[in-house]
Amino acid sequence: MHDGEFRAPGVELFDFPPLWDGAPFWLTKPVAITLLGVVVVCSLAWAAFARPRLVPRGLQNLGEYGYEFVRDQIARPFLGGDTDRWMPLLLSLFTVNLVWNFMGVFPLIQFPVNSHIAYPIVSAFLVYALKIYLGFRHQGLAGYFRNMAFPPGLPRPLALVLYAPLEIVYVFVTAPFTHAVRLFANMFAGHLLLAFFSAVGFWFLVTHPTALGAPLGIAGVITAVVMTGLEMFIQFLQAFLFTMLAAMYIGDSLRPAH
């Protein structure tokens, strides 16, 4: 928005200077929100479970619902008997990413941490490194590649020529890339859309109000409100999918298909 003309917000929304003059170049708003999100998750966990009761109430009740959701809907379908062992990691992944995503619609903050590609990449890389480590540890180096490239029931020549190269590319390139980019792209696009419709409403109703532009401004505000609700659902869904894929990768490394 400049010189009496409306200009849609763009990628400059994701470019932040240091928090104050003289601050380290890396100390920006996304970094502060990241730390805030971790503090929020740790504080809620402490408040819920520091003094657990036999009959849960309040935050403990909410925390147990969250734990059961991650256990039953994400971990158990892929990990089976190993579920409890991996729940601390999966519950942490889900809750932290959920809070980071919800920061995009939280008043005065309004920035989803995962719309900066660095954060999903780090999370996805940690899951990927764990997946490869567990695969080598539980299947052996040769066994890991054999189970990955030559699934049971598939003719060996067909697997060698077609399936094995595609599966190797998927495991070592495509899977970690899409694991990170899926989360990033949804948060990036959602934040951009919310900013656009909010800017439309503000421009035509506050900055440059006109009789002809008022209906467009009202439509922008209504769309921004509806999009906020939709974005909250997507934020939850992406935290769920990211954690579900992590559980699936761990399960595949622990118990290859036979």
Automatic annotation (TrEMBL):
Pfam families recorded: ATP-synt_A (PF00119)
Membrane spanning residue stretches: 31-50, 86-111, 117-136, 157-177, 183-205, 212-230
Keywords carried by this UniProt record: ATP synthesis, Cell membrane, CF(0), Hydrogen ion transport, Ion transport, Membrane, Transmembrane, Transmembrane helix, Transport
Cell location: Cell membrane; Membrane
Membrane-topology annotation of the record: Multi-pass membrane protein
Main location: membrane
Keyword Secreted: no
Family to which the UniProt record says this protein belongs: Belongs to the ATPase A chain family.
Annotated function: Key component of the proton channel; it plays a direct role in the translocation of protons across the membrane.
NCBIfam families membership: ATP_synt_6_or_A (TIGR01131)
Protein name: ATP synthase subunit a
Lineage: Bacteria, Bacillati, Actinomycetota, Actinomycetes, Streptosporangiales
